[in-house]
Amino acid sequence: MAPGTSSTAAIEKVQNIYIIGAQSTGKTTLVDALAAYFERRTMDTAMAILKPKVIKEVARGVLQRHHFKADDIVTSKCKALELQKLILEAQAEAETRASDGWYISDRSGVDPLAYTRRYVGFGETLALKQESPWQHLEEKMKAGLIILCEAGGEWLVDDGIRLMPEDRAAWLQMHTIFCEVLDDAGIKYSILPPSIKDLQSRVNFVVTRWKGGLDTRA
Predict the structure, then answer these.
(1) Edge-to-edge strands, sheet with 53-55
(2) Which of 38, 81, 85, 156 could form a disulfide bond with 24, CB atoms 3.0-4.6 angstroms apart?
């Protein structure tokens, strides 16, 4: 067997993990906990390759580099669409850089589609789906493990950077839009309900499904 062949084959069996959802649903906290889980995990030599890369949320960097304000998304449809295009491109670039292994991603290409649908329009969302960044990301997501963190918990906190929902109803509506975008794209996903509050239990929810994906690909 050629050097690296077994490692490449092992990577191909591993699902990337995408942690997505509306604002303030515990996504980054969960991503950090999953990274710590895999860091601690004792693996046999055949599976030592399984330590993932972590793709941090790209939207914050886009906002800062391009001097957007969080409320631009609600005050200008043109700015909102421009911002979501830049976020989609940044996500595609981040996943390309991580493609020599497997990864856990804090957000995904679905996020800018969902926010475009909510704040710009359905037609603009369809147009965005025709652009190459989404074409690149869609197939990766269909092959990945998608965890949709449901709105409605106790994590709705304004950090001064992200756009916050107008109220609880708008927060729950954003979750519904995420479901609609995923369903329209034919992407399978698991909903992590806010009733699962304990962080270790939330990690276990993801890891159990991730291991199930490994078993089906063996």
Answers:
(1) 53-55, 103-106, 17-21, 145-149, 190-192
(2) 156
Q: Are the C-beta atoms of residues 92 and 109 closer than 8 Å to each other?
A: yes
Please name the residues in contact with 63: beta carbons below 8 A apart, sequence gap of 6 or more: 69, 70, 83, 161
**E strands in the chain:** 17-21, 53-55, 103-106, 145-149, 190-192
Q: How confident is the model at residue 218 (pLDDT cuts 50, 70, 90)?
A: very low
User: Is 26:203 a contact under the CB 8 Å cutoff?
Assistant: no
- The sign one gets for the Cα dihedral 77, 125, 122, 21 is negative
Q: Which residues pair with 106 in a beta bridge?
A: 19
pLDDT tens-digit series, residues 115-170: 999 999 999 999 999 999 999 999 999 999 999 999 986 654 555 555 666 678 88
Which pair of tokens denotes residue 21? 């959802």
Q: Of 127, 90, 104, give the one whose Cα is nearest residue 210.
A: 104
- The pTM for the full model equals 0.88
- Start-to-end CA distance of the chain, whole Å, equals 19
Amino acid identity at 147: I
